[in-house]
Automatic annotation (TrEMBL):
The keyword Ion transport does not apply. This is ArfGAP with dual PH domains 2. Residues 8-128 form the Arf-GAP domain. It holds the Pfam family ArfGap. GO terms for biological process: heart development. Keywords: GTPase activation, Metal-binding, Zinc, Zinc-finger. One of its GO terms (cellular component) is cytoplasm.
């Protein structure tokens, strides 16, 4: 009994180490489970997927189950950091790594990609979602009756488009969508399927959506990452000076989109993300909104020197641009929005955004 309590205490101490204090797969805090064959600490949700990989991963509770000395020593010799260095060594920059609140299919396929298929242990030149052209059948929701019908989709890096076809492919694609404004996010509840994917794009300043799914979880996640991969290539082509990583300085590098119709300045963690981190409402000059160029004193540690200050009734926002041309374009675009009078619906938008803060 004393040895059992000793091993339990050792495991709990290991789980509190900074490198083990978050789930090895989704980043959830304080994992209570561990794979004693992989040597990692995981959360309850991710442990379920590991149980389905019984030939690769065996799961125990670090609080409730019995651990013998040999297994405890194995956990001490390994841990989340060692596993990450091996199983995630060559994860592509665009590949989506799930968060604790993400849907099950994303977490499951991430775990299977790492430990079952070992997709990231070698520096492969091509993966299914990086082949340049990705095509296959998806179930697409119809606009008229809401029924899902099987349609062929083709995503191509050669012309940066996503096309889909009806039954007779000889008539050409039903729609050709530019990658420029393309995004995808999993919406299983909205679509009514565990693998439901919402594809968003813009047409003439209007947002359009496609609702699709695939019965195979691996296939739908491949589609999701193929869209992110082609977006990455497109953005590297359109913005060759942009970097993949976040800027490790007081200012955090973010991707911004100005929605002039709804008077919203949205910002994202990366260019590939479909969901914004936040939004700034851009009202009119008469309501206390303004924009100007600047070089704020507090930005000396930042290598970008072309500042933009946006004043709102509530606070001041400071943004830095890489080049003077970008600075001028952003100021002109924001001034155009600020110069327009607010419409009745704009007041509702402003109030909703303030409530979200």
């Amino acid at each position: 009994m004393a040895n059992r309590e000793k091993n339990k205490k050792t495991l709990l101490e290991l789980a509190k180490l900074p490198e083990n204090s978050c789930c090895a797969d989704c980043g959830a805090a304080d994992p209570d489970w561990a794979s004693y064959t992989l040597g990692i600490f995981v959360c309850l949700n991710c442990s379920g997927t590991h149980r389905n990989l019984s030939t690769i991963s065996r799961i125990k509770s670090i609080r409730l189950d019995f651990w013998d000395d040999e297994l405890v020593q194995f956990m001490k010799s390994n841990g989340n950091r060692a596993a990450k260095n091996f199983y995630e060594k060559y994860v592509p920059v665009f590949y989506y790594q799930p968060q604790p609140d993400d849907c099950e299919v994303l977490r499951e396929q991430w775990i299977r990609a790492k430990y079952e298929r070992k997709e990231f242990t070698e520096e492969k030149t091509e993966r299914p979602y990086t082949a340049g052209v990705y095509e296959g059948m998806l179930w697409k929701k119809g606009k008229d009756n809401g029924q899902f019908l099987e349609r062929k989709f083709v995503l191509s890096v050669h012309d940066f488009t996503l096309k889909y076809y009806k039954e007779d492919e000889s008539k050409g694609p039903k729609a050709t969508i530019s990658v420029k404004g393309l995004n995808a996010t999993f919406q299983p509840e909205k679509i009514g399927h565990a693998h439901g994917l919402q594809i968003t794009y813009s047409v003439d300043d209007h947002t359009r959506n496609l609702f699709v799914y695939h019965k195979n979880g691996w296939e739908i996640v491949n589609w999701f990452n193929a869209i992110r991969a082609i977006r990455h290539v497109y953005l590297k082509t359109a913005f060759p000076t942009a970097s993949d990583g976040d800027q490790r300085e007081p200012f955090k590098k973010r991707w911004f989109i100005l929605d002039s119709l709804d008077r919203k300045l949205l910002y994202f963690k990366t260019q590939l993300d479909a969901i914004e981190l936040g939004v700034v409402f851009i009202g009119s000059e008469n309501h206390g909104y303004s924009v100007r160029e600047c070089v704020p004193k507090g930005t000396r540690g930042n290598k970008w020197k072309c500042g933009v200050i946006v004043e709102t009734p509530d606070r001041q926002f400071v943004f830095m641009c890489e080049q003077e041309r970008d600075q001028r374009e952003w100021v002109e675009a924001l001034k155009t929005v600020i110069s327009k009078p607010m419409m009745p619906q704009d007041y509702t938008t402003e109030a909703n955004i303030r409530r979200r803060r």
